[in-house]
Amino acid sequence: MGAGSQLPAAVQASAPPDRKLEAAEAGELIQLLRVNTPTQADRKRLTSLDLDLAESAGPGFVDVVAYGSSDQRLLRLAGFTWKTLEDDLEGADREREKADAEYAQAVKSRKILATLPSGRTSYRQLADFNSNLASLAQQYPTKAKLITLKEKSLEGRTVQGLEISHDVATSSGKPVFLMMGLHHAREWPSGELTIEFAYDLLQNDGTNARITNILAKSKVIIVPVVNPDGFNLSRTLGYEMKRKNCRITNGQLPTAGQCAQSSNQSRGVDPNRNYSGFWGGPGASTSLTSETYRGPGAFSEPETRNIQSLVSAHQVTTLITNHTYSNLVLRPPGYASAANTPDETVYKSLGDQMAAQNAYTSQKSYQLYDTTGTTEDWSYYATGGLGFTFEHGASSFHPAFSNVVNYYFGSGSTAGKGNREAYLIAAESTINPARHSVITGSGPAGAVLRLKKSFTTKTWNGTLLPDVLETTMTVPAGGSYTYHANPSTRPITIQNGGGTESWTLTCERPTGQVLETRSITVARGAGVTANLTACAAAF
Ligand code: 0X9
Ligand code: ZN
Predict the structure, then answer these.
(1) According to its UniProt record, which residues of this chain constitute the active site (predicted)?
(2) 391 catalytic residue (yes or no)
């Protein structure tokens, strides 16, 4: 995006290609500034400066991560004023390390009793996430299954997650709740909250009635670290403010150590601008060194393709992508000129219900600033699953760890509730048939039912990209099935007045031989019956 045409020429000319690198070379500190933006137009103008913006909830301001004097000069020339929230973000991080050590000691000596479900007292490293996921799968073999996403990250790391449900190995037709963390590397609490929810579900299944019901009727999938390369770097001292992935040169894999080179600190693709929905539109940059770089094409990055494949292979009826910070529950649309989603009523009520528990502000994403190519820009409009961005915390990407405990269980007016309660509400919405579609009927036990839909997703400039949603379930013993699915017509089609769309349902032998094909048209909140008699006769 770069400096927009509405800026004075002096500002445009003064913007060097890589201000972050310039600041680092000059040994300048990274600061957190609260920039005054009294009007929506000011906000838009600030967005067009291509600075490192934080999502900020307050009226009349946007927080900016400023890399030294050149960023400040850019702001000043554009006529902005600000107050400094943090004059040395990396120094603040060293303070946080000290506070975390004290917190861990206080828990150990039982001066503080409340801890997270896992008992963690400090931020995980990448290896901790992966070993915790493996241990949970081992400890709860019938309920938790370790999954490895389709592609490795740019630096060759696996991306792992956990499927959690009763009889997790059974291909059951249950609706799916997907929770993710760490699209953005520096947003450490987003991964912690995601994995802690997994501990909570597994530890309390069978004793907590709500959790037992959730795991009986849905499958919860968690992916705590979507961007492992970025996160791994951000957990290394001196790289705490890393946000994006490790794409150093478009179309090329980074060489060993390249992502950590100080001259490459501005480079990378923003995973939350790389999804195909409206890709390349407002609120996303064309510059590889911008913190909101969209990438050379939609889904150019393995980290986002992983989530595309995961969502396409499951009936994800609810999705939460966790970020920090600003205490927000955000729903589409992501840019201001877009119409309300066709699901605004149900979307708002679910968002508001969750926000009542974590005491965040529930609103449409664009109400702070425009974005395109974000996770739900693709997932919601393509699948109909209700996706939300949660922005945790008041004023920091990764505050002292004790804050994460408060985020999870609530504090002050939300004590005992917090995001735990919000996540449970999301999971309960996942199993609520009024919020998705249900196909029921008879079929031969052991047959594979496949729901498939192929279409194209349009980017901002009109490029059409192929998408295939394809999920399966097995007809259980007894010969009647229930298939929970997203509505057959996509929200983007409803919004564009494009008529109805259908799922193709096939009934197959486990070998893949198709015995019956049906076209299923079903709306949100509706159910249809499909008795697969031809399949039963031939099976
Ligand atoms: O900019 C982002 O990707 C998200 N904020 S963050 O500070 N975690 O980077 C917010 C995306 C939400 N969408 C819009 N604000 N339109
Ligand atoms: Zn984020």
Answers:
(1) 391 (proton donor/acceptor)
(2) yes
